[in-house]
Specification:
Length: 166
């Protein structure tokens, strides 16, 4: 199984958005964030030829990112996964992945949780979190069971690299 971890694109600044009185869960991507993510999604298709499923955090900025990516992978379903929301449990994400079989699954979420999931997946003894830039992607491959420590880091792409690939 291949798991593509993608951090949501650039969203409105938290402090400025807080002044609207709306909850952070509905904080959207910026116009520039959407534009850059569309370009990054084009680049992503050059290194990841197919996706079988896109699972996203239910927060608006992640859902918007997931739909931008889905446009580059026609007919790939998008599903919300509560475990990808900030503070979600990695065990729940691993259980979800096991249910997907031997597919290529993209997970759209947030820092620091995604960075911790990377290190947990590959059994890192050095880092507890791999930093992922907004709009960046990390590919982890599981040759056997999808469990903590069994993954192999295959790619770590910044958003700038993805846009250059487009």
């Amino acid at each position: 199984m291949k798991v593509l971890l993608i951090r949501h694109a650039v969203a409105e600044e938290p402090a400025a958005f807080k002044k609207t009185g709306m909850p952070d869960d509905v904080r959207p991507l910026t116009v520039e964030g959407r534009r850059k993510m569309r370009r990054a999604a084009e680049g992503l298709t050059r290194v990841i030829e197919k996706l079988d499923l896109i699972a996203t955090s239910p927060l608006v900025r992640a859902v918007e990112t997931a739909h931008i990516i889905a446009k580059s992978y026609p007919k790939v379903p998008v599903a919300e996964l509560e475990a990808l929301a900030p503070g979600g449990k990695p065990e729940s994400i691993f259980r979800f992945l096991v249910q997907q079989g031997q597919n290529v699954v993209a997970l759209i979420g947030h820092e620091q949780d995604l960075g911790k999931l990377v290190c947990l997946s590959i059994g890192s003894k050095v880092l507890d979190r791999a930093p992922i830039k907004k709009g960046g992607a990390v590919l982890i491959e599981f040759d056997g069971p999808v469990v903590a420590g069994a993954g192999t880091l295959r790619l770590m792409l910044t958003p700038q690299i993805l846009r250059r690939l487009a």
